[in-house]
Structures are given as C-alpha cells and as structure tokens.
User: Which sequence fits this backbone?
C-alpha cells in the first residue's frame, strides 16, 4: 500500500491545502494529513482545533486520515510506513524554504521522497496567515476556507480573545 504524508501547520486549513489534498490522494493509496509544529511560527489554533477543522473538511475523502505529530517529520513518516511527503508550492518564495526542508529530510532518510504539487492559480495568493488576519478583523473568508469550517474559525478566534 502506497502511503503518503501531507504535513503542515494547517493554522487553519485553507482551500489551497484542500486543493493539494484532493490531488495528492489520487496519487497514493492512503494519505495522512499530519499536523505538526513549525518552530518558526506561533500557532493561533490548538492542535485539537486544527485537527477538528481538517477532519470536517475531508470527511468524504475515503483514503484520507488526519493526525498530529511532534518531533521530526521524517521519523513520523518512517513510523507510518510512508514512501513520500507531499507539499504544495505557491510561488518562488515558498521554493527556497521547501527545497531546504526536502534536502534535509532526504539527508535524514533517503528512502522517503518529497513530492511538490503546484498550487492551483486560484489559490496561489492564499495563506493561513491571510485567513487569520482577515477573520480577526471580521473580514469575509468565504471561498478562502471550506464552508464546513467558515463559522468555526470566527467562533474560535473570538473565544481565544
Ligand atoms: O505548513 P508549514 O508551517 O509549512 O509546515 C511545516 C512543518 C510543520 C511541516 C515543518 O515545520 C515540520 O516538518 N516540522 C516538524 C519538525 C521537522 O521535522 N523539521 C524539519 C527539520 S529538517
């Protein structure tokens, strides 16, 4: 069985992530969405909140599982029996960081590949940070995040204040 990992902060999951998940799940047998800690970012939503958001959005995708992990991604991927890590690339600005991550992960375990999918042009301007900022000031995020979590995002942000 071909298992792939789609890792990220998902703080929160956006339509850009969902686009990558929809496409990646067709390229493997089982796709694990792995919500991890990015030491360079301070998360707005808790692990549990982020997991619930993603779960709601992928509930109809039968070969997709949602999980959280701590520690090194490459170790998590090996423990899950994955053969590849899949990530979305929006622009050249993503490339430098993602290339570095891919090369480091390759050095740590050369049996696990990193696969990049180009983000759909419709979502190339989209980021979790943009969603958080717009929602925080009561702007409209419909179309930027799946409808299933639209209201939850405003509620959780208000609760967190
Ligand atoms: O959505 P993001 O913020 O780009 O996701 C980054 C994430 C969480 C996938 C990345 O920071 C990660 O893999 N964190 C776990 C620790 C790790 O393995 N770091 C890479 C060392 S080479």
Assistant:
């Amino acid at each position: 069985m071909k298992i792939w990992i789609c890792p990220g902060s998902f703080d929160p999951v956006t339509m850009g992530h969902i686009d990558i998940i929809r496409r990646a799940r067709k390229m493997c047998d089982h796709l694990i969405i792995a919500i991890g800690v990015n030491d360079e970012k301070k998360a707005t939503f808790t692990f549990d909140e982020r997991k619930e958001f993603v779960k709601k959005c992928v509930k109809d995708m039968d070969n997709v599982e949602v999980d959280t992990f701590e520690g090194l991604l490459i170790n998590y991927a090996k423990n899950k029996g994955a053969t590849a890590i899949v990530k979305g690339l929006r622009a050249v600005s993503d490339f430098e960081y993602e290339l570095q991550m891919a090369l480091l992960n390759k050095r740590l375990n050369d049996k696990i590949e990193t696969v990049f999918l180009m983000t759909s042009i419709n979502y190339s301007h989209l980021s979790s940070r943009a969603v958080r900022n717009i929602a925080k000031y009561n702007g409209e995020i419909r179309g930027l995040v799946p409808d299933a979590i639209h209201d939850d995002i405003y509620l959780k942000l208000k609760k967190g204040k």
The longest helix spans residues 92-108. The first strand starts at residue 3 and ends at 8. The chain has one domain: 3-159.
